[in-house]
User: What shape does this take?
Amino acid sequence: MIGVLVSGEGSNLQALLDAGLPVAAVASNRPAVPALARADAAGVPTRVFELESFATREERDEAMALWLCEEGAEIAVLAGYMHLLTKPFLEIFPERVLNVHPSLLPEYPGAHAVEDALAAGESSTGATVHFVDEGIDSGSVIGQVRVTVRPNEDAESLHRRIQEVEHWLLPRCVNLYLEGGVWPE
Ligand code: GAR
Assistant: This one.
């Protein structure tokens, strides 16, 4: 069973649900985001863990991980989750946290990967699914797909095309992991 972390639109969460993957629960660091409505529509339990409600980020992350466990999650998938995870979360899901990111990691980690690749004049970038460690988008890679940048393309268009790839790549990588086909280095 999978616990999914979200912060926004939730199109990658939708891809996991549409692929029939066993999503046990969805946690968000932000209230009232579309991703939570997608989980509700699928009958999946949700809870919001705002940083402001906890003394520290570590306390928030521990509470979030424990709630996902209570709901039956054995692994965690970050699907557009835009906060860095701290040690307490990773210790509760050791080597069992996956993330999807809109670049060919290790190139362009961080929150502005698509804009950064465009600003650097790259002729291609892509999507990556990887294991999460304490760094910024720095764990070992499970799968990557390259996306060619079109002439004069803006960030919105490029990100939309990268997300189409993510919606294909993420469920396949999660499935591969659940079937024991991949393990962090
Ligand atoms: C996705 O493109 C994901 O790769 C990116 O946020 C988007 C969320 O879309 N994540 C990061 O940039 C993490 N560093 P979604 O909410 O529609 O799935």
Observations:
- Residues 8-12, 35, 79-80, 100-102, 111, 113, 137, 163, 166 surround glycinamide ribonucleotide (CB under 6 Å).
- The beta strands are 2-6, 23-28, 46-48, 75-78, 97-101, 124-131, 141-148.
- The first strand starts at residue 2 and ends at 6.
- The chain is about 35% helix and 20% strand.
